[in-house]
Amino acid sequence: MPVFTAILTPGAGTRCVSRTRLYDPHRLTTPHLEIRADYDASTIVVYQAYRPEIAQAAVAAQRFVAPFSVSRMTWIKPSFLWMMERSGWATKEGQEHVLGVRITRAGWEEALASARLSEQGSGDAPVVVQWDPERTARGAKLGHRSIQVGLGRGIVQRYVSEWTVEIRDLTPLVGKLRRFREEGEWSLVAHWLPPERPYPVPPLIARRLGMPDAPPMIDQSFLMPIVDVIAGLARGTVVTGRIERGTVRVGDEVEIVGSGATTKAAVLGIETSRKLVDVGRAADEVGLLLDKRGRVDMERGQVLAKPGSIGSHRRLAATLHMRTKEEGGRDTPFRDGYRPSFWFWTCNPGGTVTLPREQHEVKPGDDATVQIDLLVSVACEVGLHFTVRESGEIVGEGVVTQLLD
Fold it and tell me: Which domains, from first to last, does the chain contain?
């Protein structure tokens, strides 16, 4: 068993700092076609909605049984919000129960590898893929699209008998979210949404699905936003996250940047996909064992980086684009002194927006050049994309144009 298997699961004698539900860098330019999902090293969650008798029987048996039919196409969706749009938040007839079905990634990718795009005509294809506009929690269409996968009769039986690992009834959660929406409690909606992040689609499958190639940025300086910190271990401290760019090797020195003074640490070990490796590469989800013992000043929101490659900053200039109400943004302008929160890497600091002297307000749908003063320092560089948030909802996007401190 790999050494980190125990390290990455806090137990007696360990201290877990900022354990999180979700890693989400929220890039400014989300690809037009992107699969976002709740997944781990071997499984992925897809969503379906059924009438009560089908859903209840499936949950009880932990597999699909009668009255579910394997003789007709069934559609699965990794996007929870698109499932909510399709089912009317579990209010449409025949879709009153929402299921979270955890299936094997091997099965999921096998289905994608044999898929045909719906616009090409389904014909006798065993799997059909359709791309539809992703939605916000308020129901507005976004500019990028979410995937639906239709499993034909020839493959549904494998979905039922071989790929399904777990079936959970999410109807109570959907009911809670529906009430929060009705009451306008959007921060609570954002808090309770299931976690999703970009799914790493193999290049050959991506081309089959019409997705643009997006090779990992391996040839750039190493950088990894910290998602989790597990301290108090005899050998050191474990930090987890997804490598944004570059590579890191056992024995490398890295800097810990953001939220205070920049410090250094040596990498003692690397684990990815439950295996110990000598090198971690861009797009890998890893646990890094660092030579930090005792009390450590590391937390979610900082980044690990190649020494000297990125600095920590609180004051910056940026261009913003504010979403319209229909896109899930504000329905009123903001003025000088606007104080939202921001999302850089995995850091969510508050801050103040200063407008140019000649500009009095920024309306929904407008672009603006602004100065931002953050409450805490973050790892920052020119060209970094970030999002603007209110009560957990994304209301705008931005890109850093100048560092002012």
Answer: 4-20+216-305 (2.40.30.10), 36-208 (no CATH), 312-403 (2.40.30.10)
